[in-house]
Write a structure and sequence with these properties.
heterodimer; A: alpha+beta; Creatine Kinase, Chain A, domain 2; B: mainly alpha; binds zinc ion
């Protein structure tokens, strides 16, 4: 039963949030996605339903033969068969894109049971292979996804051009077909008003920065994702190396900003952290925006060693599980926006009471 | 028409964004478009880069008219992909997306122009599905050599000699590789 599978997914910890990784105080997770297509088939946007089904079956067969996605407890979701809330769960867990869950016909999602590896079949490209790991470790993620890609390539005939590389539906992905990204928690740079200049500087290096929850002044939770933009004319390891260099600098800047806050206005920083904890621990109605901002404050406190009863991995998971689909799935019913705020508050209280 | 951003120069780049059935337009001069592109602002606004470039391709056509109403603008469906039936109209309405791998050949003129602006060159130098060494390809090798040489010069300029030594070794290895591919030379660049 598909719905049981989603429940099984919910019950298991998300490895990229729950496990330890390098530089995890600031870097939450590292991700690489590879776009691949098959020779002889149109891209999903131009394909007939039968062709979409054929591609699903070809990729499933190749994945079953692979080490990473071949295990018997791996998940396979035919997206059109899932109720909307279950699809939203997959989006909130970063296993599927918004576009993918909004166009479920003819598409399938393969997921390793620990959620570290997955393949979206028939998203914009026929394959979007993804590997996610906790902390800042793009090198390791590249090794893993490179090996998985090799295993798949042994069974699939990829559309590849000698000059242009891997052919993708959109020319912005052609070449390596690779997007590498790191999710960073940057409250120090936000609070010292350095974030805009920082983003501007990073953009000049041909890297993209976006807020995970909202852009600019609307950013919630101080979470940002930095990724490469260029996919053609650079090697994969070159992309990883360039991005890693910038991430290392960002981590250094963030640490410096936090030290600056502590030196100049310790009381304000501690007040922010304490109030964040207080609201999460004691409120009875909590909007998603308030929860995200408080979780950011709590995370700073945990990084500073102020709370010995809260583990950073629990905070990471709360960033994910306070979202509507997770709240509703855990409550076992559809919730109105007002009901969600009550349930969200109860959930946060219980998490911090542990 | 004047540029939406600086309101001084003539707008030559017309970007369209279709969201929920509504068409929004942005008209920019070449300078402002480049600046926005560099900042990644176009992407952040949901304006697709490929679409920007496609519009440049459109403007280059002799019969292109300055027309602020995209709904009325009929694109020439002249080129059609023999493999999947994708045409200019579909290319435009899908924000520069293609219908099949063959489309890269069909629309090579437009795509070549796009790649020049949004990517670093037009040559893939990364991984290959047959697992052959990507740098066995002489053209790719030359690109990598040029880049490594620039990097070396930069490291020397910054007096980072330890890193420069590593870079130097890499450059020598690349040159050796190119020599082994082309025994009779063209490796004039080194000495
Ligand atoms: Zn202008
Ligand atoms: Zn085609």
């Amino acid at each position: 039963m598909k719905s049981d599978a989603v429940k099984r997914l919910l019950a298991s910890p998300v490895s990229f949030l729950a496990d330890s990784g390098p530089d995890e105080d600031i870097a939450i997770s590292s991700r690489i996605r590879l776009a691949r297509n098959l020779r002889g088939y149109p891209f999903p946007c131009a394909a007939e339903p039968e062709q979409l089904t054929e591609v699903c079956d070809l990729v499933s067969a190749a994945a079953n033969a692979s080490g990473s996605l071949g295990c018997p407890d791996c998940f396979s979701f035919d997206m059109a068969e899932l109720p909307v809330v279950d699809r939203e769960i997959l989006l909130e867990r970063r296993l599927a894109s918004r576009d993918f869950i909004d166009h479920p016909e003819g598409s399938r999602l393969l997921v390793r049971s620990d959620e570290s590896c997955s393949i979206m079949i028939n998203e914009e490209d026929q394959l979007r292979i993804q590997v996610l790991a906790p902390g800042f470790q793009l090198d390791k993620v590249w090794k893993t996804i490179n090996a998985l890609d090799d295993e798949l390539a042994a069974h699939l005939d990829y559309a590849f051009d000698d000059q242009l590389g891997y052919l993708t539906c959109c020319p912005t992905n052609v070449g390596t077909g690779m997007r590498a990204s790191v999710m960073l928690h940057l409250p120090g740079l936000v609070m010292t008003n350095k974030i805009t200049a920082t983003i501007h500087g990073i953009n000049k290096l041909n890297l993209a920065v976006r807020g995970i929850f909202g852009e600019g002044s609307d950013n919630q939770g101080n979470l940002f994702q930095v990724s490469n933009q260029v996919t053609l004319g650079e090697t994969e390891s070159g992309i990883v190396e360039n991005l890693s260099q910038v991430i290392r600098q960002l981590i250094t800047h963030e640490k410096a900003a936090r030290v600056q806050l502590l030196e100049r206005d310790q009381a304000s920083l501690l007040d922010h952290v304490g109030r964040s904890y207080g609201i999460l621990r004691h409120s009875y109605k909590l909007s998603s925006k308030e929860a995200l901002n408080c979780l950011s404050g709590l995370r700073v406190g945990v990084d500073m060693g102020l709370f010995n009863n809260v583990d950073i991995h629990r905070v990471n998971e709360m960033f994910l599980t306070i979202h509507p689909a997770h709240l509703q799935k855990n409550a076992g019913r559809t919730l109105s926006s007002a009901e969600r705020d009550v349930v969200r508050a109860a959930y946060c209280r219980s998490q911090l009471a542990k | 028409m004047l540029c939406d951003r600086c309101k001084k120069k003539e707008a030559t780049i017309h970007v369209k964004k279709v969201s929920n059935g509504k068409v929004e337009s942005l008209h920019l001069c070449a300078d402002c478009a480049r600046e926005k592109e560099e900042q990644g602002v176009l992407g952040a606004l949901g304006f697709n880069l490929a679409e920007v470039l496609f519009n440049i391709g459109e403007m280059a056509k002799p019969h292109a008219e300055e027309d602020s109403s995209p709904d009325e603008k009929k694109s020439d469906p002249g080129i059609t992909c023999p493999a999947c039936g994708w045409n200019m109209e579909k290319l435009q309405s899908s924000h520069g997306r293609l219908g099949c791998p063959e489309c890269y050949r069909t629309f090579s003129a437009i795509i070549g122009e796009a790649l020049n602006r949004i990517q670093r060159g037009e040559m893939h130098i990364g991984k290959r599905p047959d697992k052959t060494d990507p740098l066995l390809n002489a053209a790719a090798l030359r690109i990598e050599i040029t880049r490594t040489r620039k990097k070396l010069a930069e490291l020397v300029r910054r007096e980072e000699y330890e890193k420069a030594a590593v870079c130097r070794d890499k450059l020598n290895a690349l040159n050796d590789k190119l020599k082994s591919l082309e025994p009779r030379g063209e490796v004039s660049d080194e000495k």
